[in-house]
Amino acid sequence: MVTMPLLEMRGISKGFPGVKALDNVSLTIGRGEVVALCGENGAGKSTLMKILGGVHQPDVGEILIDGQPVKIHGVTDSMKFGIAFIHQELNVLGNLDVAANVFLGREPENALGLIDSKKIHADTAPFIQRLGLEISTRTRLDNLSIAQQQMVEIAKALSLNSRLIIMDEPTSSLTLTETKRLLELIRELRGQGVSIAYISHRLGEIDECADRIVVLRDGKNAGELSRAESSHDKLVSLMVGREIKSFYVEPKGSKTPGYFKVRNSSSSLHPGKKVSFDAARGEILGFAGLVGAGRSEMAKAISGLEDSPTQEIFLDGQKLSVSKPRDAIDQGIYLAPENRRAEGLVVEMTVRENISLPSLENFSRFGLINRAHEKKIAAEQVKSLNVKTPTTETRVLNLSGGNQQKVVLGKWLAMTPKVMILDEPTRGIDVGAKAEIYRLMRELADGGAVILMISSDMEEILNVSDRIAVMHEGEISGVLERADCSEENVMNLAVGKKISAAKPAVNN
Fold first, then answer.
1. Which of helix, strand or coil describes residue 205?
2. What is the pLDDT of residues 311-347, one digit of tens each?
3. What is the rounded CA–CA span in Å between residue 3 and residue 18?
4. Which of 122, 243, 261, 385 sits at 20 to 30 Å (Cα–Cα) from 28?
5. What is the pTM of this model?
6. How far is residue 463's CA from residue 452's CA, in Å, rounded to a whole number?
């Protein structure tokens, strides 16, 4: 007896101005099945799921639920059919607390017709506990880390008692512990008959949780693999249509120890703690640590985004004065932030405008912008970084997450960085684009730049870094040379344990 699938999407096509996002794509998901949706950035994964979630309408094609054709005209329709969507780019309101975000738009009322705040908090608490979150339901979202905000989004999906949960890069901001808990939760939900559409570029997670893998390439179905058939090489081959032999590039350039020095940097998150370290010219210095260790805050302090009155910065023997972002930019210190949409881009502006934005003085004369020069530089960066965009006049919000990240990098590369700080540089980026960004980082280092890379991806931090500085509660607990870089050593330092392999962060 053939069991009718929960969901069928047949012949789905969708176009945007200048872009054919989906071309005759089909997808089937059974009851209690976890289906991973894979593909490079721009392959159409998120667009397909946004159609299912009611965010976009298909140009062609049909959707069947329980074998019956349905029309999903908006998010409300999607929820009515038992579909919950956890977006890659967080959809939370920072000025509201946890409970208000979980029940946003469906708040229960009391006898007086007013929002029943007490019930909202009582109903939210079990979902927060289920995810292992040790936070109050009354905590404002803007007081939480991105990882914690991501977990609140997951709690919201759970509160809907959904039949199908779409998870778009759900672990991109999560720690190893949080990721492990989420994968356990997915197994629990599958056992309860809940279906999961799981979009991720982390192949280890896919191998652990997916029953079946559907691959998209250039907006079309590229193939699918069962759990038994799946392998890293097969999956990558389907995703990119070519063989990728190595994701990582060995260093070639020479290093100048002590070229960049930071002393006594502090942050509002850990005001009583100080960070000091040396970085060599020509190296990629990775920063590892658990969420809340202070890595992003350190990056913001170095970049002038966060006040650090005791901080001292030295570049090539010269002491720098950095009290605001423009000071850092003028001296060649650039930050590609973790939250690219909120802090790294103006998404309503075009690719060209974003690339030229931090250096408009280089494109203007007598107060007028030289559009031809601006277009030329933008086109060079788009070509160099392989940004998938119809033109440089395309608005950034119409690009995939990985291509948005490339635009963030492009605007700084157009200015020749001396120190490049990359906070979660490949968050939500596919394996092919990751390889390109790793190559770019190595080329920058070999060309004489200092690369400071903050990453929560253990594979990335271990394989890309020349050395790894591990942070714990606002301080560097130790630095690992490449020969000593292992998951065990990184995790021991991340929880504050002293190990013999660790070196001091400052060279005396």
1. helix
2. 999 999 999 999 999 999 999 999 998 888 888 899 8
3. 40
4. 243
5. 0.60
6. 14
